[in-house]
């Protein structure tokens, strides 16, 4: 306690240190025989008599907080004091009526009923004009004496009801928000479009609703939590990845209101036509704007994204085209999309390197000890068309905007999921062996290419990944095989697992199967002739998922490494689609062989590079 007060004394006596020490010495003597309760009450009285009424004395606030951390909450008074401090920290009022504490704000209050021993009997939350409703989450936090978590939860509740404006505007915005919530609930009951993408039959119904529902999966708002929309979760289809044991991150958004520099017409009643109807295109019919009950208010609705989403420039601009409301961009910091995705993953930094030519290398470990290295040329990604920013909220003014906004956000989430899979590694063992190298380049705002070395030769192949929409991803393979079914097969793989490394491993195994079959078959025939009709050689046995059991090489590999010829790159590039050839780079797949694929083939033909 005295150490805390000394901070205050030192602040006021920077030029008189001896005087400050004398004051502390006197305080130590004066309060040597005081108990915790008396000291605690003293600090509270000092806080209430702050010289600046607009701002409590910061050193005393810190002192009180430290005292409370040490003070055992075992009485009613102690619990009341702790709740009072928390209320003041969140900018709320605090009132006591016998055994009941009230933490109050303009549009809601929290009611805490205490027992004589200081334990919490019940916690209720009441929004303006509503009867108090029990809050199990807040009750459990207080009963467990998790006061810090309770303070955080209360802060979120305060932010939920922190509606801008005077009391009259606050009440109107709260009513408008409630009408919006009811309309979104009704939209969720409309049948989906017949042409809407359907998840596989084995897909979890909730995952299907999250990814394909008109308004995702709605979690009804309560007094202690706002209406929440869950709208994207990566479908894994049981993909074998190192982090498959982790729960997937569900992209969600809280529906609330926020201040706006301009006035917007917000609904003051339901805007869905009654009885509910669908237009010829299968979309819900809304009440005409001229007939809708609305009011011009200096605010707009918000989708508060949890977590925030990294969006590229083109998709960011489409948000405003849907809503006619400008998305604030003053404070946004723009950077290459992969850089922002890696910044959001702490594990990526420990597996990322930057070469002298500004190319970023990321090592991605896979099950079975296999490791991929992905190269992302900075010059290709650091251009205006492929720069992005982290967005934490999206403004809108009507429920009709929500389905289109969610589809756009899902589109970006699908792109981010694929790119994150090859730039945000979970972990990699020290000195891990590099099995394969890949270069990832952007081709448009919704597509990218992956260049890799073919398993049968020293030439390169290119996989073009095009995210047409959040439900349709197509792949086109160039320079590797003439099998027309390969594109469809790889497209289905990447759609199911949403992982570039898993897709490339599957593709590489399939290509090894294709190139190994003729040679292995001939070898088997020779063996059978030599053995006069004996059983087939096991070298011909194939595993559809892992490639051939025995890899029959069709090309000799130099012992000191391999060369990547410019002609191989040109051959792959010549087969690309027109939009790829029209890339801003004169030759997007040309790079120095040593920089991208260093000499990493040993005498056993295995790629092994220590990065």
From TrEMBL:
GO cellular component: mediator complex
Coiled coil: none
One biological process term in Gene Ontology: cellular response to thyroid hormone stimulus
Localization annotation: Nucleus
Key words of the record: Activator, Nucleus, Transcription, Transcription regulation
Signal peptide: none
InterPro entries xrefs: Mediator_complex_subunit_1, Mediator_Med1
Residue ranges of every copy of the Mediator complex subunit Med1 domain listed in the record: 63-423
Record keyword Nucleus present: yes
Cited function: Component of the Mediator complex, a coactivator involved in the regulated transcription of nearly all RNA polymerase II-dependent genes. Mediator functions as a bridge to convey information from gene-specific regulatory proteins to the basal RNA polymerase II transcription machinery. Mediator is recruited to promoters by direct interactions with regulatory proteins and serves as a scaffold for the assembly of a functional preinitiation complex with RNA polymerase II and the general transcription factors.
Family: Belongs to the Mediator complex subunit 1 family.
Name used for this protein in its record: Mediator of RNA polymerase II transcription subunit 1
